[in-house]
Amino acid sequence: MTEFTPVASAIGGAMIGLSAVMLMLFMGRIAGISGIASRLLPPVAEDYGWRLAFVVGLIAAPIVYQQVSEQPIEQTVSGDLVLMGLAGLLVGFGSVFGGGCTSGHGVCGLSRLSVRSLIATVVFMVVAFVTVFLVRHGLGG
Amino acid sequence: MARIILGLVAGLVFGLGLVISGMSNPAKVLNFLDLFGTWDPSLAFVMGGAVLVTVIGYRLVWARGTPLIDARFELPAKTDLDPRLLSGAAVFGVGWGLGGFCPGPALTAIPLGASGTMIFVPAMLIGMWLARQAPAGLLTPRSAQS
Q1: Euclidean distance between CA atoms B100 and A45, whole angstroms
Q2: Contact, B89 vs A91, CB < 8 A?
Q3: Is B140 on the interface with A (CB under 8 A)?
Q4: Which residues of chain A have a CB within 8 Å of the CB of B51?
Q5: Distance CA B59, CA A21 (A)
Q6: What's the pTM?
Q7: A120 vs B79: which has the higher pLDDT
């Protein structure tokens, strides 16, 4: 079980939106994490500076949060390392091959009213729902 | 330099948003995806908050005509529903459903140091690298290639 947190989740979501709007306002860019991160891998994009800075900011966030709030961050991650390795490989490959993830297609694409991003978002959401159903309720769960 | 600072601040705000919304916790994501079990609707509120701010913010920004630092807006121009988009999204969906991490939360979760994260992130980077090596014509019908 995890606690339903509508207020904190909506506020956190609004901050994600704020970040997306900042990138558009200053640089005219979409805040797609898979695009920003994957272009730091060889062949490295020419404009790697802001991309690297963005990823550093992402990674610094929990440290800053804990310094400021002095609250622990709740987290439960599967300890099945084979499963997590496979999941990581699929997430990395799929998001870049499909041109975006939850942020690029989900948040930014939907906000641009892109039909392409809407379809991609529906596909990965439905597939993820089915995957969780099979893992938790279908395969002897 | 302005770009670097901007990137850092935008990344930090994004990451704090993930932490505050609870999305750096894969259990919360997996419970959202578990409609017939321990359902936690929080993720819908994250998406709702994010899209609401972005829909309005983008319109205000685009009304300016140009971004503040760069010369023009770099928006995706593709409109076709090609097999790459659909298969990529499906593969991503399987991985997301298995691990509960998408790329942003996985990176943000690094300092929390869970062993699953430490395997997930390098595997994700390998997957991203592989996808970038895939030939442009892969999965595109021959007739549609120019």
Answers
A1: 28
A2: no
A3: no
A4: 13, 17, 107, 110-111
A5: 10
A6: 0.95
A7: A120
